[in-house]
Amino acid sequence: MVADGTGSPSDASAYDWVLRRSRARRAVLEYLATCGPSYAAAIARATGLNDVACVGALRGLGKRYAPERSLLALGLVRASAGQAGGPRRYDITPLGARVAARERAMKP
Question: For the chain, which has fewer Cβ within 10 Å, the N-terminal or C-terminal residue?
Answer without folding.
Answer: C
